[in-house]
Write a structure and sequence with these properties.
heterodimer; A: mainly beta; 6-stranded mixed β-sheet; 5-stranded antiparallel β-sheet; B: 114 residues; mainly beta; 4-stranded antiparallel β-sheet; 10 strands; 0% helix
Chain lengths: 112, 114
C-alpha cells in the first residue's frame, strides 16, 4: 500500500460547484498533514494545514480522521482559478527528523 | 534571498554527461529535500537532509544519483552518466525543524536529457 493515496481525477466541475477530495495514509504515526496546490509547470505551494479538529479557510475546509487515517479537502463555490492539482502531504517522524510523503495529486478543472 | 533558489532553471544535456543541480534554501531552514517530478507524474522523494544528521537517501533511484549539503546550507544534486529517463523537473524544498512547519519549494530545475 502506498504511503499516501489520492484519487487522481480529473475532477471536472462547473463554476460554483462544491467538490471534495479524499486522501488516505498508511502510517498511523503520522503527525502533520497538509494540502498543497500545484499549478501546471509550477512548484507546489501550501494551501492549508489540516488540524485534528478540522479547519476552514474561506471556501476551503480540511478535515482529518485519525482513526480512519483519512484526510479530506472541500472546496465550495468553485472558481476558475481553483483549477490545479491538489496534493495531500503527510509528515511523519523519521530517523533524522520529519519525512514528507506526497500523494500523486488530484487534478481539478473548473469550467465556465 | 526570500525563497528557495535553484539553478540552473533549465538544463539540456546529452545522454551520458554528468549534471549538477544547485539548491540554496531559505536562511535558517535546517531541513532540505530533493524531489523529482516527471511530466504529468507525482512528486518522487529523492533525499532529505536534516541539520548535521546523516541524510535519508532512501529515495535515490540509482547510484548515479548523489547529493551533498555543505555547511548545512547549499545543496548540490549530482546525476552522473545521465539517461533519457532522468528528464524531469528536480524540486528542492526547505523547512524549519519540526513536524508542523510549512515546506517551501524552489521553482525547480528542468532537466532534459537528449
Amino acid at each position: 500500500r502506498k504511503e499516501v493515496e489520492q484519487d487522481p481525477g480529473p475532477f471536472n466541475v462547473p463554476e460554483g460547484a462544491t467538490v471534495a477530495f479524499n486522501c488516505t495514509y498508511s502510517n498511523s504515526a503520522s503527525q502533520s498533514f497538509f494540502w498543497y496546490r500545484q499549478d501546471c509547470r509550477k512548484e507546489p505551494k501550501l494551501l492549508m494545514s489540516v488540524y485534528s479538529s478540522g479547519n476552514e479557510d474561506g471556501r476551503f475546509t480540511a478535515q482529518l480522521n485519525r482513526a480512519s487515517q483519512y484526510i479530506s479537502l472541500l472546496i465550495r463555490d468553485s472558481k476558475l482559478s481553483d483549477s490545479a492539482t491538489y496534493l495531500c502531504v503527510v509528515n511523519k517522524l523519521a530517523n533524522s527528523g520529519y519525512a514528507l510523503n506526497f500523494g500523486k495529486g488530484t487534478s481539478l478543472l473548473v469550467t465556465p | 534571498g526570500a525563497g528557495v533558489s535553484q539553478s540552473p532553471s533549465n538544463k539540456v544535456t546529452e545522454k551520458g554527461k554528468d549534471v549538477e543541480l544547485r539548491c540554496d534554501p531559505i536562511s535558517g531552514h535546517t531541513a532540505l529535500y530533493w524531489y523529482r517530478q516527471s511530466l504529468g507524474q507525482g512528486l518522487e522523494f529523492l533525499i532529505y537532509f536534516q541539520g548535521n544528521s546523516a541524510p535519508d537517501k532512501s529515495g535515490l533511484p540509482s547510484d548515479r544519483f548523489s547529493a551533498e549539503r555543505t555547511g548545512g546550507s547549499v545543496s548540490t544534486l549530482t546525476i552522473q552518466r545521465t539517461q533519457q529517463e532522468d528528464s524531469a523537473v528536480y524540486l528542492c524544498a526547505s523547512t524549519k525543524t519540526g513536524a508542523g512547519n510549512t515546506i517551501y519549494f524552489g521553482e525547480g530545475s528542468w532537466l532534459t536529457v537528449v
